[in-house]
């Protein structure tokens, strides 16, 4: 019995050893099979006899049936598996000759080319749809003009130049009214995203803001933004949105804050806000500026310099105000009737006048007064003849030499003011440039005052010529003109108080010893300014670059100096861009398009940033027009 037990134990141990050795051999064989590189079969042209070509890459081809177009796994690139596919799915074709499968291969390749060509044409049509929509928005045209005007004209031109077959391809471009609206909306969002991303990368930004009422009676708030981009201060359209209720400071700030916050911008980086002097903007307790400065402590408010200059020009002595009112009344008498305007034009043509019509006076337009008075003075003889023929009481004014002399003076002084107004308009104006222009104007007023006081009227050419031609006494005009010039000087100094900018002179010329000495900067920053002022290489760069570009270019080397300078140079000095935007708003949203949601259209119309057409097309499925 014991011997039997010992034999069974030895047998079990031997069996365990054999099992263990067997498992080791299996693991070793599996490892060797895993380490062995898989074999990539190559396609053999003989496989076409079984009805198969290849698809995919040449390194790892996959069999494709030329009959049904099915692509099998790469492991099926074996004659046996291809024959099995032919027998199971196309059993009736097993006896077909090789020429049959060659013909099927040509048909399969033709289908691929047709499909590829159709996709390419559709993608081009989609991109063309975006481009046409962009130019429709850029020119301010109605959305339905793409299908009703652009497409027929383009087809006629292509048909003439390239033939009828090429012209039929244009029918694939989607240009319906709703499609154009969707394209404009997509492009506007893309431009908004680009502008927002650029602002996020800028250290500081400033805004200018204004509001107006459109043709439908809706209050529209329009905003521009200035920021650093590509080593330059870039001015870009920010947004235009309707106010939900009233144009109060609370409503204005709520709309502005919502857009800034949703865009992911930080108020702490806002260094300037420019607006007009309306109560909703500048109210001490609840105005827009007060609310912005509460969340943006660095923001400095600038009262639009063009608005201030226009306010100065409105005030004048009573006698000059009377002459201006009578001039405006004369224009209204002639132009209020269409018949009178036509007869006056015929009269001007017969008398050989340079101009054939008078101009309306518009109080809200900056240059209106100068142009109206100047045109009236040029056509004074024609106006007198026309009014006399109609027995108007105003005809007597054009026989009064003193009245005409004062009219000539108004034409001259308003022309001077218009030149100043125009010089203050435009982009890239800084606080230094507008200060120079205003100070120059005030000094010119002093010069004219002195000359007129001595009896010299050459500063006013129309008045001077009129006095010489009519031999009028000058002493009757001197008190009125001197009083007006003195009043202008006082008003300019009131609206543009003289500020001591010696502490900021280093920004304008960092290489001036006097400016460096007067700079009110912390010690460490002042020492950096001295280092910069002694750098001859930077001095050469300063002479070749605009002021803002220079300070941006030294941002890496002198960050504290650059930041201090950009805080002064970045803020807007006028709302000129907003005023230009209001003209665009009038063009886009008129009585024929009074229900237009203008935000997307005006963004593409005013923005300098182009949409990314390729990115927009990649997000949509390309399909032909239908």
Can you put this structure into words, describing what you see?
The protein is α/β, with parallel strands linked by helices. The chain is 59% helix and 8% strand. It is built from 27 helices and seven strands. The chain has helices spanning 2-35, 79-89, 98-139, 145-161, 164-168, 177-200, 249-262, 279-282, 288-295, 305-314, 318-335, 338-350, 368-378, 380-389, 401-424, 431-453, 461-470, 478-495, 505-508, 513-518, 523-533, 536-544, 547-553, 559-569, 576-588, 599-606, 613-618, and strands spanning 52-56, 61-65, 205-213, 219-228, 233-242, 270-275, 300-303. Strand 3 (205-213) and strand 4 form a beta hairpin. The protein is elongated, with a radius of gyration of 40 Å.
Per the principal axes of the C-alpha atoms, what is the gross shape?
elongated
Q: Segments where pLDDT lies below 50 for 5+ residues?
A: 1-37, 114-118
Helix tally equals: 27
- Structural class call reads alpha/beta
Give a count of the beta strands, DSSP E runs of length 2 or more. Answer: 7
CA-CA gap between termini? 98 Å
How much of the sequence is in beta strands?
Answer: 5-15%
Query: Could you tell me the mean pLDDT?
Result: 85
Helicity, in percent? 55-70%
Biggest sheet strand order reads 5-4-3-6-7
Radius of gyration: 40 Å
Main sheet, how many strands, which sense, barrel? 5 strands, mixed
């Amino acid at each position: 019995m014991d011997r039997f037990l010992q034999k069974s134990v030895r047998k079990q141990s031997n069996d365990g050893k054999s099992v263990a050795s067997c498992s080791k051999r299996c693991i070793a064989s599996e490892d060797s099979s895993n380490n062995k590189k898989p074999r990539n079969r190559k396609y053999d042209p003989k496989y076409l006899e079984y009805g198969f070509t290849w698809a995919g890459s040449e390194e790892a081809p996959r069999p494709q049936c030329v009959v049904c177009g099915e692509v099998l796994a790469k492991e099926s690139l074996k004659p046996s598996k291809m024959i099995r596919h032919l027998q199971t799915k196309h059993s009736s074709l097993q006896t077909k000759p090789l020429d049959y499968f060659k013909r099927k291969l040509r048909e399969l390749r033709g289908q691929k080319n047709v499909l590829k060509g159709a996709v390419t044409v559709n993608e081009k049509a989609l991109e063309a749809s975006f481009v046409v929509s962009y130019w429709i928005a850029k020119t301010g045209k109605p959305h339905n003009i793409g299908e009703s005007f652009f497409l027929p004209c383009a087809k006629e031109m292509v048909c003439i130049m390239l033939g009828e077959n090429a012209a039929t391809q244009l029918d694939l471009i989607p240009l319906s009214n709703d499609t154009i609206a969707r394209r404009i909306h997509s492009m506007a969002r893309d431009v908004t995203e680009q502008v927002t991303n650029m602002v996020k990368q800028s250290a500081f930004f400033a805004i200018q803001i204004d509001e107006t009422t459109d043709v439908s009676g809706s209050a529209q708030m329009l905003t521009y933004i200035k920021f650093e981009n590509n080593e330059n201060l870039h001015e870009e359209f920010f947004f235009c949105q309707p106010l939900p209720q009233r144009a109060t400071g609370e409503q204005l700030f709520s709309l502005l804050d919502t857009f800034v916050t949703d865009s992911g911008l930080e108020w702490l980086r806002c260094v300037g806000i420019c607006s007009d002097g309306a109560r909703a903007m500048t109210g001490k307790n609840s105005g827009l500026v007060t609310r912005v400065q509460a969340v943006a402590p660095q923001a400095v408010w600038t009262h639009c310099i063009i608005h201030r200059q226009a306010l100065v020009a409105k005030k004048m002595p009573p006698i000059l105000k009377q002459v201006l009112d009578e001039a405006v009344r004369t224009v209204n008498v002639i132009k209020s009737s269409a018949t009178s305007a036509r007869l006056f034009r015929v009269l001007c043509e017969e008398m050989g006048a340079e101009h054939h019509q008078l101009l309306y006076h518009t109080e809200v337009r900056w240059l209106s007064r100068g142009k109206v008075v100047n045109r009236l003075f040029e056509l004074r003889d024609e106006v007198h003849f026309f009014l006399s023929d109609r027995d108007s009481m105003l005809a007597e004014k054009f026989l009064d030499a003193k009245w005409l002399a004062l009219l000539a003076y108004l034409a001259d002084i308003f022309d001077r003011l218009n030149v100043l107004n125009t010089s203050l308009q435009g982009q890239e104006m800084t606080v230094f440039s507008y200060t120079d222009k205003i100070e120059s104007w005030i000094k010119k007023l002093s010069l004219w005052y002195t000359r007129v006081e001595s009896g010299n009227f050459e500063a006013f050419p129309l008045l001077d010529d009129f006095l010489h031609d009519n031999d009028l006494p000058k002493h009757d005009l001197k008190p009125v003109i001197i009083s007006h010039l003195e009043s202008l000087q006082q008003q300019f100094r009131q609206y543009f108080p003289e500020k001591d900018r010696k502490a900021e002179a280093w920004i304008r010329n960092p290489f001036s010893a006097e400016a460096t000495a007067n700079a009110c900067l912390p010690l460490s920053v002042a020492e950096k300014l001295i280092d910069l002022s002694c750098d001859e290489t930077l001095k050469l760069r300063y002479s070749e670059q605009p002021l803002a570009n220079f300070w941006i270019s030294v941002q890496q080397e002198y960050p504290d100096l650059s930041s201090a300078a950009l805080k002064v140079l970045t803020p807007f000095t006028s709302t000129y861009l907003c005023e230009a935007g209001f003209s665009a708003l009038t063009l886009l949203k008129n009585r024929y398009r009074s229900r237009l949601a203008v935000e997307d259209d005006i963004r593409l119309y005013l923005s300098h940033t182009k949409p990314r057409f390729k990115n927009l097309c990649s997000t949509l499925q390309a399909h032909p027009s239908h």
